[in-house]
Amino acid sequence: MTRQEFITELRQALQGQVDQATLQDNLNYYETYIMQESRKGRTEQEVLDELGNPRLIAKTIINSQPEEAPKRRSQESYNEDYGQQQGSDFDFRVNGRSYSGWKGIVLAITAVIALIVIVVGIIALVAGTISLLAPVLIPILLILLALRLISRR
């Protein structure tokens, strides 16, 4: 891989995933770094081997963006980078972390069960409160209704 191929691949991986300023800053940084290391006597290939895969570098850059800044990558792009087949795995996301396969399924089921328990608990609390107050409130309401009917005559 040449320096230009590295920069092109990095650009393609970052395009649409980070803002234009971040994209350009990172491209400039890696372009400058490769040239500076080459001037120190290292071959371009040594520097590129040290840097590694530009797609993994892009993934790190994308993940290091502030929470509101990153743009979601399409599933196809993710699958392409990591060699996964579409539809082959269950994927459950919590706070930006992805859980795949059986761990994702177990986590999703646990979340649904927790939600059901919370809803049932709220219903039980409301029903319990009503059942405690009903013996007191019903006679009071009946007395108020009777007084109102009497006062109208």
Question: Can you walk through the features of this model?
Answer:
With about 150 residues, the protein is mainly alpha-helical. The protein is about 70% helix and about 5% strand. The protein contains 6 helices and 2 strands. The chain has helices at about 5-15, 20-40, 45-50, 55-65, 75-80, 100-150, and strands at about 90-95, 95-100. A two-stranded antiparallel ribbon has the order 1-2. A hairpin with a 2-residue loop joins strand 1 and strand 2. Helix 1 (about 5-15) runs parallel beside helix 4 (about 55-65). Residues about 85-90 have low confidence and may be disordered.
Q: How are the SSEs placed, and which strands pair?
A:
Elements: H1 3-14, H2 20-39, H3 44-51, H4 54-63, H5 75-82, E1 91-94, E2 97-100, H6 101-152
Antiparallel strand pairs: 1-2
**How many β-strand runs?**
2
What is the rounded Rg? 31 Å
| Count of helix runs | 6
Strand composition percent: 5-15%
Q: What is the makeup of the main sheet?
A: 2 strands, antiparallel
The overall average pLDDT, rounded, is 82
